[in-house]
Design goal:
two-stranded antiparallel ribbon; Rossmann fold; 204 residues; alpha/beta; six-stranded parallel sheet; disordered C terminus
């Protein structure tokens, strides 16, 4: 479990990234860290992309329905404009932001702000997603959380899309995605490529 750095009496900023697949508890962990900062009487501001309205227009809500108030923004640059007089900035669904988010996170950290970012590190194709690779490289602290593969029960770090949409950004829940381990994820991809015919998973 991540243990917060003791920053008492120090004006030192840094970047933390929580990443993983769908249903792995990324937002749950983000909310946990932000609530601890609030309990410590730190000044906290929280942001999420306006595109994410699955559970709430404004709040950040985990799949377990835990929530925390946030400010929806349409671009990463808005975070810099709105984050004032704060000690901690939380950002959810980072993969949906533009690439400017890396500059925003670095600028905030250089100002002495603790920046906590949560997001999918890979898209439904298993490819690096949006600004997440750069954020992972820049971060002082990285936590990768895992779900449970819905096919075999192993640890899962891939998000397998169950529907036919081909766009990279398709918002959805359990009817649209399921977490899978590496073997089961690529087994599914191979089945799709073969037109739905069964593929021997031991050869993948």
């Amino acid at each position: 479990m991540f243990i917060e750095v003791n920053s008492a009496n120090r004006k030192t900023g840094w970047i933390e990234v929580v990443c993983g697949s769908m249903f792995s508890g990324k937002t749950e962990e983000l909310i946990r860290r932000l609530r601890r900062a609030q309990i410590a009487n730190q000044r906290v501001q929280i942001f999420k992309p306006t595109i994410d309205r699955r559970y709430s227009e404004e709040d950040i809500v985990s799949h377990n329905r835990n929530s925390i108030p946030s400010t929806p923004v349409s671009s990463a640059e808005q975070i810099l404009l709105l984050a004032s007089n704060v000690e901690v900035v939380g950002i959810d669904e980072a993969q949906f932001f533009d690439m400017e988010l890396t500059t925003v996170a670095r600028t905030l950290a250089n100002r002495g702000i603790r920046v906590i970012v949560a997001g999918l590190d890979m898209d439904f194709r298993g490819q690096p997603f949006g600004p997440m690779p750069q954020l992972l490289a820049m971060a002082e602290f990285v936590t990768k959380v895992h779900a449970i593969c819905q096919v075999c029960g192993s640890l899962a770090n891939y998000s397998y899309r169950l529907t036919a949409e081909k766009g990279t950004v398709v918002l959805g829940e359990q009817e649209t995605y399921e977490p899978r381990c590496r073997k089961c994820f690529f087994h599914g991809i191979e089945e799709e490529a073969s037109g739905g015919e069964s593929v021997d998973a031991s050869k993948i």
